[in-house]
Amino acid sequence: MVTITKNSNMVTLINVFTVEPEKQQKLIDLLIQATEKTMRHLPGFISANIHRSLDGKQVANYAQWRSHQDFEAMLHNPDASGHMQEIASFTKFAPNLYDVVESIQA
Amino acid sequence: MVTITKNSNMVTLINVFTVEPEKQQKLIDLLIQATEKTMRHLPGFISANIHRSLDGKQVANYAQWRSHQDFEAMLHNPDASGHMQEIASFTKFAPNLYDVVESIQA
Beta strand B11-18 with A58-65: parallel, antiparallel or unpaired? Predict the structure, then answer.
């Protein structure tokens, strides 16, 4: 089970991809494939959660890594960057790393 | 505990705010205040999770609502829109609604 916890011992990647709606499913399939084949086997990978926007125009990956260093190492992995180059050929995306500072429930 | 689950019976709001680093903490404080005072008491609110980017330039809200309709009703709530107007005066943001289509763990 994937959980979101304040002040947890991990970093969160939030990456929002903008895509033509007719290619939204292709992007989702490629992100799942890249995660299953490569990312999930790299040191420090905790989870990836692929989100489809209701308007068809975006896909978001909410991913958790053990540390900033593990995430940076992934960026330099040739298999991982191969996946991202293919995805970059038909999407725009803006990744950033975060800490969870507050979690509020009803 | 906040959990991320594939095909769950809820919608996810991902809202990434861009802010001057010296105002990142002010933005975080306002988002927490808005959630505690207003959003968490509205019908259909499930959770809000406030994230601080490590580079200081962004804040992300990963929030869960019972339905698209509950989220839309929040947008028309005068207290909620008052909070968002204050936040809009010094940030840019791009909210969108999503479904979780895949969740992959190590």
Answer: unpaired
Q: Which residues of A45-59 are buried (b: 16+ CB within 10 A; e: fewer)?
A: bbbbbbbbbeeeebb
pTM of the predicted structure, to 2 decimals: 0.96
Question: Can you list the residues of chain A whose pLDDT is less than 70?
Answer: none
Task: Indicate yes or no: CB of B104 within 8 angstroms of CB of A40.
Answer: yes
What residues make up the domain containing B21?
Answer: 11-98
A105: nearest CB among B47, B100, B101 = B47
CATH code at position B61 = 3.30.70.100
Residue B7's pLDDT is: 83
Tokens 């420090």 belong to A44
Whether B91 is covered by a domain: the verdict is yes
Is B104 within a domain?
no
Q: Which ipTM did the prediction report?
A: 0.96
The pLDDT assigned to A7 comes to: 83
H-state helical runs in A1-106: 24-37, 68-75, 78-88
B6 assigned to some structural domain: no
Those of residues 54-83 in B touching chain A at CB distance below 8 A are 54-55, 57-58, 60, 62, 68
In a domain, B44, yes or no: yes
